[in-house]
Amino acid sequence: MNKKIIISLLLGFVISSLGLYLGLRNVPLPELYLYLKSINYFWVIPASVIVVFSFVARVLRWQVILTSSHKVGFFAAFHPLMIGFMINCILPGRIGEVARPAIIKKNVDIPFSTGLATVAAERAFDMMILMGLFAWMLSTVDFHSGVDISFRNHHLNKATLETIGNGMVKLSFLLIIGICLLSVSASRKLINRGIMALPSLFSFLGPSAKSTICHKICTALVNFLENLSIGFSLVRYPVKILLCIGLSIIIWSLQAYSYYLVARGCPGISLSYVDIYTVMIIICFFIALPSVPGFWGLWEAGGVFALALFGVSSKEAAGYTLANHAIQMLPVVIIGLISAVSISVNIWQVSYGKNIITSTGPARNEK
Questions:
Q1: Helix, strand or coil for residue 27?
Q2: What is the pTM of this model?
Q3: Count of CB atoms within 10 A of residue 16's CB?
Q4: 23: which of 196, 271, 300, 366 fits an S-S bond (Cβ 3.0–4.6 Å)?
């Protein structure tokens, strides 16, 4: 396993351990065990079905983004997407985001940087929707007053949410600006000229060294940005943008509904769909931080904190969050493993930075 993955795993382990401690520190384990036994797990079935439908919507959205540059069939997009999310559940460093474009490059012959750009575009849509929902949440949802979870000199409260939200808004704004700059031909050409002019800044270098830098670094970077811009070409199609926004709303609404169905079987969790939607949004902010595979620890800290805002006790909040976390991940892992087997992807090779496709057959373009 390479050093970057080891460092990422260690950092994630520390942060996840802290999150797990914050989420479960006030809950005796025997009481948590009894609560988990009291859950009506019948609701797992409809919740899991809704989770699968939310990922079908994700596939359809990715198809729309991909078809701005390449026409891709449903299953050609479905398998890489499910494998990518499954990998994020079992391997550190969110490697699944990189594995997805690598798989589709092999199977559909889409440049890796273009595929990576489409994944980034997906994340931009997710962030945009979550930011809008977050703003709505802060202005309309009635939180339980006085909630403040402390750890040494750090506090989790409504002010913390506002700080996180402001940071995410700024990050989203920068991401959108970057996408627009790469997508517009004039600005991209200006960026490319600047990159190609970089060797001239090193006046102390000889012509041979400058030429090497130009060909080995600058030209490669320009080619990468050109392929990246193809993945962001969606911005030139307003109808497709609106379609992706609509699909993004469907994705997150289905995800929240699966959370709500799990809550129906959990004693003491009598929140409305809107309240559960808010809980999901807060959990999403927490799991954006580095963590161990599957977001364990941070998911629990976010869930317990979010439910505390609605007056749910620590025991019930911890029990619901743990059960819901497992239920949300299980269908993804199972379907991802099936997809990996069906198209011969060795998921363990990802951690060593090797070629993740084990098949040697020709690239396939599923229609």
A1: coil
A2: 0.78
A3: 25
A4: 300
